[in-house]
Specification:
This protein is of the alpha/beta class and 340 residues long. It contains twelve helices and 18 strands. It has helices spanning 41-45, 93-96, 124-127, 140-146, 149-159, 175-186, 199-208, 218-228, 244-252, 273-279, 290-302, 321-329; strands spanning 2-8, 11-16, 28-36, 55-56, 61-68, 80-83, 86-87, 107-108, 118-121, 129-130, 167-171, 191-195, 212-214, 234-239, 254-262, 282-285, 314-317, 336-339. Strands 3, 5, 6, 9, 10, 17 and 18 form a seven-stranded mixed beta sheet that branches. The protein has a six-stranded parallel beta sheet with strand order 13-12-11-14-15-16, with helices on both faces. A three-stranded antiparallel beta sheet has the order 2-1-4, with helices on one face. Strand 1 and strand 2 (11-16) form a beta hairpin. Helix 5 (149-159) crosses helix 11 (290-302), helix 6 packs parallel to helix 7 and helix 8 runs parallel beside helix 9 (244-252). The structure holds zinc ion.
Length: 340
Amino acid sequence: MRGAVLHAPGDVRVEDRADPAIVEPTDAVIRLSATCVCGSDLWSYRGIQEVDGPSPMGHEYVGVVEDVGDEVTTVRPGQFVIGSFFASDNTCEICRAGYQTSCVQRQGIGALGAQAQRLRVPLADGTLVATPDVPPDDLVPSLLAASDVLGTGWFGAVAAEVGPGKTVAVVGDGAVGLLGVLAAKQLGAERIIAMSRHEPRQELALEYGATDIVTERGDEGVAKIKELTGGLGAHSVIEAVGTQESMMQAIRSTRPGGHVGYVGVSHDVALPGDELFFSHVHLHGGPAPVRRFLPELVDLIWNRTVDPGKVFDLTLPLDDAAEGYRAMDERRAIKTLLQP
Ligand SMILES: [Zn+2]
């Protein structure tokens, strides 16, 4: 089969990889209907995260089950399924508490390489959620978004305790930030302030429910949020970048007693203890337990209540993955969908 492999920073190639097969009796093998490039793939693409030899890429996937191991009972060949970027048993204490990305048996999908024609999914019963039927083509991008970016934005909103009557600020205008706006709207936020300086992204944020746009960043962005909230700061702030600047922008934009939901993969962030101490801000985040939200998100998409697939503003054949990475790296595209 064909699959994307990162050889060195900036060097993604689509090449022949071994076809996956059932290894464990709890595995499934799926034929991918669509896959995509994640903002977090750019950390290694840019060399910020070390590239350790040729690595299969991709951790977002939807597709049709081709084969299952002997112990798999909840999904069967022919079903259309979605899973998240960590396989999880969905039965351990941590999973049952809603933190499937910290499952005691978790296995990263990234190492298996979902930017490919086929994928082996471990712990299939716990990991995969089947849709009611094989979806029409136009729903596939939205279902793919649920595999990571929608679920991650949703967790950011839940972790930030978004709810009715709240003012929410969103730091980051990538796919996760934009879908954090969508999540905040669905969760009943009264006011949603999207922080973005890119016009096409501002437009999508407004379409997803943003009520205000702030183009300033850093301390100026914080001052603007304070100005819009009577000097207090937002109740809930979703942090969807993962840098020192974005994290401090999020914490400083939050009012005392408020909540930050941080879902941007953290890179070299160091938080000043004294400032945290006096901020009275709650921090919660981490790798989003997308699996917790998948049944609800699939339902919202299936009923066409939400259209998260609009974050894919570039669609390419899998073989052109290199251009998909370049377009996102140069911010010409919000998110690239790859057709295997
Ligand atoms: Zn578990």
